[in-house]
Amino acid sequence: MMRAFAKATFLSMAVCGALAQPVAAGEAPAGGYPQRPIRVIIDFSPGGLSDTMARSVAPRMSEALGQPLVMDNRPGAAGALAYSIVAKAVPDGYTLVILSTGFSLNLSLVSKLPFDTRRDFVPIGLIGTTPNVLVTSSRTARTVAELVAAVKARGGAANAGSTGVGSTPHLTLELFKRVAGFDALHVPFNGSGPAITDILAGRIDFMFLNLPSSSGHIKAGRITALAVGSEQRTPLLPDVPTMQESGYKGFRSTSWAGLGGPAGLPAPVVARLSRELIAAVDSAEARERIAAAGGEARSSTPEGFRAFIDDEIARWGRVIREAGVKVER
User: Fold this and answer.
1) Range of the structural domain that residue 140 is part of
2) Up-side HSE of residue 259: CA atoms within 13 Å toward CB?
3) 135 and 125, same structural domain?
4) Of the four, 14, 27, 213, 256, which is 20 to 30 A from 219 by CA?
5) Is residue 167 a part of any domain in this protein?
């Protein structure tokens, strides 16, 4: 009898011990998900591309999940501050992050990051993209070919702006210089605002800008858009050709944003978030909001988003290496 009592006590202790263990990575959290608000860390400031994309899908996702998505903007170090926070977060589905273009660039630009880009994150899905636009202050160049001819004639003396060293507009400029075979003086600015001010004043001859920051000036005729970096023309500028239509086959430059989480996020949570994100991105409300900001809604599976990020890392990594671009963060 004592032996039976000891055996029963041992089994009871074992069961209690198992119940006390935390949920392992890859397992579904007990009691259903979600049971409380979900924090979404945004890698850039309010009003930017990441913020706009996140807030475009948040209402629909919150309704479907039955819990609010709480937006938490943490700009800094080209997104690395936000990524660092999420890389260390508990993978329970209650801390997510907006991954954007800088996420794929930092790996090649920065010698030492406080996280592993490939191992510390789980992609959940793409939200949308927006093209980078080649704009000029010149009143004579009306095509990419005319701009290239004018720049070459100046023997590298043309001023080409960007929104900062290592930014997507800067790397797109480096790509353009190589495929078109010209040189120009790179003038980096601290963000799109100062860059636009100088190109409007004619102090900058040309540059690439993302569509949301430049579309108003283009439509008002203050600067001229020569081409967009997307593979298809954008509905916001239907008369502006793509870089590929302008003679540069394979040329692609877009900014993008998507949803991710920390490594170890349980598979059932990833599947639930993916399902609700795709439904939100594909909704008419989100598409209208993203289009109004100059973007294109693009849903994807987690696997599709992973492949998209890997392609971005590889493409821009080549440009960064060939141009010798490095930044200190």
Assistant:
1) 131-228
2) 37
3) no
4) 256
5) yes
Q: How many domains does the chain have?
A: 2
Distance CA 40, CA 28 (A): 20
Residue type, 271: A
Nearest to 194, CA basis, from 219, 175, 228, 169 = 169
Please name which of 124, 122, 144, 126 lies closest in space to residue 135, comparing C-alpha atoms: 144
The pLDDT assigned to 212 comes to 87
Decide: residue 249, CB within 10 A, 0-12 exposed, 13-18 middle, 19+ buried.
exposed
Q: If you count them, how many residues does the chain have?
A: 329
Q: Residues 80-119: pLDDT tens digits?
A: 999 999 999 999 999 999 999 999 999 999 989 999 999 9
Q: Are 74 and 43 in contact (CB under 8 A)?
A: yes
The answer for residues whose C-beta is within 8 angstroms of residue 138's C-beta and 6 or more apart is 147, 150, 205, 206, 224
> How far, in Å, CA of 258 to CA of 194, rounded?
27
Ranges in the chain, pLDDT < 70: 1-31, 329
- Cα 126–226–141 angle (5° rounding)? 165
Q: Rounded to whole angstroms, how far apart are CA atoms 298 and 291?
A: 11
Q: Which 3 state secondary structure label does DSSP give 186?
A: strand
Task: Compute the Cα dihedral for 52, 124, 312, 187 and give only its sign.
Answer: positive
CB of 38 closer than 8 Å to CB of 273: no
What share of residues in the chain are helix, strand, coil (percent, to 5)?
A: 45, 20, 40
Q: Look up the CATH number of the domain holding residue 122.
A: 3.40.190.150
pLDDT at 9: 37
